[in-house]
Amino acid sequence: MKNTDGGAGRVWLISGCSRGLGRTLAEAVLARGDRLVATARDAQSLEPLRQLAPERVQAHALDVNREDRVQAVVAAAIAAFGRIDVLVNNAGYGLAGAVEEVSDAEARAQFETNVFGALSLTRAVLPQMRAQKSGHILQISSASGFVASPGWGCTTPASSPWRAIPRRWRRKWRRWASASPSSSQARSAPTGPAPPC
Fold first, then answer.
1. Is residue 3 situated within a structural domain?
2. 195 lies in a domain?
3. Which of 68-77, 88-97, 130-139, 188-197 has the lowest mean pLDDT?
4. Whole-structure pTM value
């Protein structure tokens, strides 16, 4: 499906584009004719995406746990394309194991990436979305945040905030929309059931 906005298409910033859902979504964005800011911890993994449409792709190394990199990538995206229309918080990972089998350090690291990394990226794009009076934020999370699965003792709580946070954002953005013409939305999309252990 090609874009129908008559211009250069939407600007998408997607975290975690090295493989899986992030890569597939990035390829679909480019096939649609939109512009893409693709990120992954290893920028080399993004080279095939950049080669698909060099004039429409910005590829950046990004660890969402590093606030300085988050700010730099968002600034580079705005400098290159002038706006960010869609943020997809896709970077994250599952951590198999019962609660008592997962170390404190492992659980904290997962929360840092899956919760606080996504919040950091969201906070960085919101001023631009407010200024342009439009934007969409899509939070990719594990289905275990919606329905608990055995063997995923820490993935469930690390995904659960994404049931409530987008709802709160939508309520807040409705107030902005009533004050001025805009289109702002936040959604959480579970990726499917966690595999059984």
1. no
2. no
3. 188-197
4. 0.80
